[in-house]
Design a protein that fits this description.
This protein is an alpha/beta fold. The chain contains ten helices and nine strands.
């Protein structure tokens, strides 16, 4: 039987709405739709990232992890960690005494990355937890760094996810968020829009068998906060030294902050 607190949360979720691409759906429905989306794309997720970004996502992730300035022995939480791309990069920096936890709600995404991790000498440094990023099953102040790559916009309540990251970080710990955004230059933005709304869904249909899965991606990017807005959210939660760096004219953005 559900507790009074759980019943209250369920009732509030039904009342709340969230964006799934350009559609407004109930909070509960968004969770299910996002889960179905990643079930659909998991098997070819890494391949599609490389194809659709022309390989640039590797450079973005490398820059993002480098900017965290991880140290040997650090404990790192990789929320929405999926196929463990960021986790593997972080694992190189933390040495044999460090630990990276890939935390993701979608089993199919984590499973898609296991062969990549298992085949690496870094595998002993990486662990897994399946769970909800808005309710992290981790103690307070238990990580030196936390990161989320291209996943925060898929949460029903991104701000709640950021608050959870703040909670589990130690004082002085670093948060890094790598997320898509809109290009700054007008002509490039028009080109990017054409590519996003027409080319990407077509490639998704051919490669994954789902046009809708890759129509959701550009829609979710357009609906998400811009760098100034997201920086203000992080500052409001309590992070200090909040800053961001645009990559490839703003297609992707690295956000950094520190828990006081």
């Amino acid at each position: 039987m559900a507790s009074e607190h759980e019943v209250k949360e369920l009732t509030e979720d039904r009342r709340q709405t969230a964006s799934f691409g350009y559609r407004q759906v109930s909070a509960a429905a968004k969770g299910k739709l996002v889960h179905q989306h990643f079930d659909t794309v998991a098997r070819k997720y890494d391949l599609m990232n490389t194809l659709l970004s022309f390989g640039l996502h590797h450079l973005w992730k490398r820059a993002a992890v480098r900017m965290m300035e991880l140290k040997p022995g650090d404990r790192v939480l990789d929320v929405c960690g999926g196929t463990a791309d960021l986790a593997l990069r972080a694992a190189r920096a933390i040495g044999d005494t460090g630990r990276v936890i890939v935390y993701d709600i979608n089993w199919a995404m984590m499973a898609a990355g296991w062969p990549k991790v298992a085949g690496s000498t870094l595998a002993p440094r990486i662990g897994y937890i399946q769970g909800d990023a808005e309710r992290l099953s981790c103690p307070d102040a238990s990580f030196d760094a936390a990161m989320v790559g291209f996943g925060i916009r898929n949460l029903t309540r991104p701000e709640v996810g950021f608050k959870e990251l703040f909670r589990v970080l130690k004082s002085g710990g670093t948060i890094m968020c790598l997320e898509f955004s809109k290009p700054k230059t007008a002509w490039f933005r028009r080109l990017y829009d054409f590519y996003s709304f027409y080319v990407m869904p077509g490639v998704g249909k051919i490669m994954v068998g789902s046009r809708d899965a890759y129509a959701y991606l550009p829609e979710s990017i357009r609906m998400f906060s811009q760098p100034e807005e997201l920086s203000a959210v992080l500052t409001g939660i309590g992070f200090t030294r909040v800053r961001y760096r645009r990559l490839t004219d703003g297609i992707a953005v690295i956000y950094l902050g520190v828990k006081p």
